[in-house]
Amino acid sequence: MSYNNLLYLLVVIFLVTAGPDSSGYSSGVLALISLWLGKLGCLYLACRFLFSVSRVRNPASYMKAERAAHILAIIAIGLDVYYFHGLYYLLLLPGFKAMPILAHIILVGLFFFYLVVGWVVASRSHNLAFGRRGNPWVFIGENLRANIPIALPWVAVSLWMDLLKIVPWVWFREFMVEGYGELVVFALFFIFLALVFPPLLVRMWRCTPIPAGPVRDELVGMCDRLHLRYRDVLIWPLFGGQVLTAGVVGFVARFRYILITNGLLANLTRDEVESVIAHETGHVKYYHMPLYLFVLLGFSLIIAPVLCGVNYLVLKTDWAFKLMESLGLSLVKFVEINEMVFLFVAIVLFLRFVFGYFMRNFERQADLHAFTTTGGSGFLASALEKVAFLSGDIRDLPSWHHFGVGQRVDFLVACEAEPSLVHKHHRKVRKMLVAYGLLMVLAVGCYSAIPGDYLEGVVVSRAEGLLLQEMGSNPDNPDLYWAMGDFYYRQKEYLKAVAMYNKSLVLREENPEVHNNLAWLFVTCEDEMVRDAALGLKHAKRAVVLHPAPHILDTYAHALWLNGRRDEAIRIEMQALHGAENTEYQVKFRRQIILWQQQLHSVLAP
């Protein structure tokens, strides 16, 4: 599994989950199918060019061509989502609206289909570049088994989140909405990674226990000497077992597996194999797998105050409001898009540079564990040199997540000459983790100190001036008065808000949202001089006639209650509840019904 492929998959997941789902392809379904097939043909021809024998002559050129093919597949799935509106069509399928993850999984599966198109062409070039033989379909199957498991944690978390939203237990949905949902999902995710993912992974990779005999006895003896606790030692048939590598899968000893390929066993000496096992033991000894989760958790904590700062700086600029106006975006939607774009860029940069930095140093720490437990650099260095040569002479090929083989060997040789480097590196890793932990604490402190309305001052100072300026240029635009009414309502300038809403209705009377906003203001206004039950009921009723959406029915129910029509208010609120798809709305409406029923019973009680 390539760590570059992890970055590619994250890009695809972002494109898929952030895609539009509100409308279909403008030119019709037949044109869509024709263009899609044409795009598929272009992708195939582009892959034929990338993997042509004249271009791919060695492992480095093959890897370059494979990266280009992945980028083409990403472009193809981006077109499916943003040009062909694939999400819209998939969400028309039964049950997909309630569980959007099903549509997302299909689109990610389509990305893998595009990769298969490239692998069909790449098989021959791969064999020539690496000096191997193999059937193209076997090559494709091996690539799929190596790459699909990367998506499993995302699939598991997303499925859980969608399922938790549709469970029939009311108390549980309220529990999830009230801020505990993220903790539940995180706990389930950790359980999945610790207990379910390792055995599932080794089965998907078709790993099998090493048969009883001298080889198994040797490997078991190595693990015992290295004090490594594990569930089993397995043969890892990665690309037919020809790849020279080994690994450890699993956090918990009961669900931990030692994986080793036949290629490694066939080409390395007994001492070299033990040095490789010692390297993998180093990952367990220094808790690298839990620390990877720690580093990922740190990103989620550190990015929160950074996002707030980015939002603040962006909204301080004039172009942000002009862009909102030209695209017809609300402030909330603009901030949401701004955060998504920044978060996407931040994730890619974080994984490539920050997470990669920790990975490289963790790998070096594992190398040093082999260095100290096997009596020096000799066996591990010779094992690395063999792996580099037999993998296509990749000794000097750079690696952002492991250091290059040449760099690793040079460092081990330097440790032979200066043993103090071993202690210095372990100390460096400890300092890295402590500094990162302090940065997490600082981020949490900064985020806690940021007020919930931190953007309001920026918005207030600019929004009113821009809206008034625009109203002067377009005095007949009802949406501007609507927006101005919303603005004044948020500022609690209720009389100005009423005036703006009324001007909007003069220009376009049949606007249910403005009627609804005006009704809500009259019904719930904290200023008794502005509150007007009769006017609130009038506008709420008009809004319901125009568009009986759940949130509009909720306003109508409040107006009825304020006007003394309490049984009818409860009935309308129940109607709003039955029509609500949003979990937060469901919880809010249900609580309102319970509150009103309790108040009604207390009045009727003798």
Would you kindly provide a written description of the structure presented here, covering whatever features stand out?
This protein has 606 residues and is mainly α. The protein has four domains: 3-166, no CATH class; 208-280, Metalloproteases ("zincins"), catalytic domain (Zincin-like, 2-Layer Sandwich); 281-454, no CATH class; 511-606, Tetratricopeptide repeat domain (Serine Threonine Protein Phosphatase 5, Tetratricopeptide repeat, Alpha Horseshoe). It contains 25 helices and four strands. It has helices at residues 3-17, 29-50, 59-82, 86-90, 101-130, 136-147, 152-166, 170-204, 214-225, 262-267, 270-285, 288-315, 318-327, 331-373, 378-390, 405-417, 420-449, 456-473, 478-490, 494-507, 512-524, 533-546, 550-562, 566-579, 583-604; strands at 208-209, 232-235, 246-249, 257-260. A four-stranded mixed β-sheet has the order 1-2-4-3, with helices on both faces. The model has no long low-confidence stretch (mean pLDDT 85).
